[in-house]
Backbone:
């Protein structure tokens, strides 16, 4: 399973970004390999359509799960049916992945 | 003379200043380029001739498309995206540049027309009034503004252009053939901040500028800025409850002798610059 998390700084010790498309980085975690990788958000400075580009990024990585406090309408339209979104706790990335795997995070509707 | 009325911040008084300024200049045309929220017709009432505005939107031939991604990479407005096995078009973000069609190596992109809004025209006491209105859910009204400006090219009288707020594409489209930019600002920190943004834009376009302070008070931050940048303050409209009331009732304040002189003074100062 692949999890994508929008983050404020890079790596598993980062806090989660309040924004999805306008996050500074994305942390992509493979639960089977137990490996995470950080990607810089290349579209951060675009004035429009960052949500679309981020959805494209998520689907390119064949992600199953997003952990993000919110997500825009256009991203959701593209991701619906392919990816589930979960609400993070207020801790760092690593803790959120653990909480998700333990079934402690709630799905964002 | 073509006078564009701008402000960085919304609600500063662009429409208030433009409507009244156009009203006191004999036969001046009034263009409402704030197509996202046009208000000029609340003052210049009358029957309108309505015209549709269309744009070209890309359509993908999914059988021909090889998913190479060149179109999505090219689009700087992110109106195209490769979603799993299909190129998706977000027509509301499209600026109709036609670039995706040009870069497609297999000619899988054609264009269709889509209505994004309307242009309404009316005559009000000798003033030609042209205004645009963007359809709900659209994200850019630049094409509507371009058409208003195009129509107005034949106007020989003075023209007052009521611009959208901010300093984005739609403002650039509104001021492109203006001779003079009138910057409306209110004396607040937020007002000053956004005045600076829009002033910067007018300098990029090398426009002549002047400032109108609306809702003027004892706070002189706009005057200080104008002085430091050597910009003339053409008019200060005081913060006046009665004036606010007249305006919010959809009445033209310049019809009232008490307020007419403000706008006549402004018009005199501006039109002198023509010679």
Residues:
């Amino acid at each position: 399973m692949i999890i994508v998390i929008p983050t404020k700084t890079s790596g598993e010790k980062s806090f989660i970004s309040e924004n999805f498309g306008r996050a500074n980085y994305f942390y992509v975690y493979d639960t089977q390999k137990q490996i995470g990788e950080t990607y810089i958000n290349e579209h951060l400075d675009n004035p429009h359509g960052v949500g679309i580009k981020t959805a494209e990024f998520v689907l390119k990585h064949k992600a199953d799960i997003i952990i993000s406090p919110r997500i825009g309408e256009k991203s959701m339209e593209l991701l619906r049916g392919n990816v589930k979104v979960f609400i993070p706790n207020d801790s760092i990335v690593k803790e959120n992945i653990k909480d998700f795997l333990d079934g402690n995070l709630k799905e964002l509707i | 003379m073509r006078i564009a009325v701008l402000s960085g911040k919304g609600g500063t008084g662009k429409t208030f200043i433009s409507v009244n300024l156009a009203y006191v200049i004999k036969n001046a045309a009034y263009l409402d380029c704030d197509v996202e929220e046009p208000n000029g017709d609340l003052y210049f009432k009358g029957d309108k001739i309505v015209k549709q505005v269309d744009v070209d939107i890309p359509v993908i031939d999914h059988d021909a498309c090889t998913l190479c991604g060149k179109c999505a990479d090219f689009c700087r407005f992110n109106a195209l995206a490769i979603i799993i096995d299909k190129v998706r078009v977000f027509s509301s973000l499209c600026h109709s540049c036609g670039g995706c069609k040009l870069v497609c190596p297999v000619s899988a992109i054609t264009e269709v027309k889509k209505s994004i809004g309307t242009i309404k025209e009316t005559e009000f006491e000798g003033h030609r009034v042209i205004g645009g209105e963007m359809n709900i859910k659209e994200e850019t009204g630049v094409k509507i503004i371009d058409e208003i400006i195009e129509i107005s090219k034949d106007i020989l009288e003075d023209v007052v252009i009521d611009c959208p707020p901010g300093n984005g594409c739609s403002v650039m489209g509104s001021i492109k053939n203006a001779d003079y930019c009138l910057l409306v600002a209110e004396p607040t920190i937020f007002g000053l901040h956004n005045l600076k943004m829009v002033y910067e834009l007018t300098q990029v376009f090398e426009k002549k500028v002047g400032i109108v302070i609306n809702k003027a008070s004892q706070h002189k931050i706009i005057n200080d800025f104008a002085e430091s940048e050597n910009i003339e303050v053409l008019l200060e409209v005081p913060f006046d409850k009665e004036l606010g009331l007249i305006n919010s009732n959809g009445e033209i304040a310049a019809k009232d002798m008490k307020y007419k002189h403000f706008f006549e003074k402004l018009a005199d100062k501006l039109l002198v610059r023509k010679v």
The interface with chain A takes residues 72, 76-79, 81-84, 88, 90, 93, 139, 168 of chain B (CB under 8 Å).
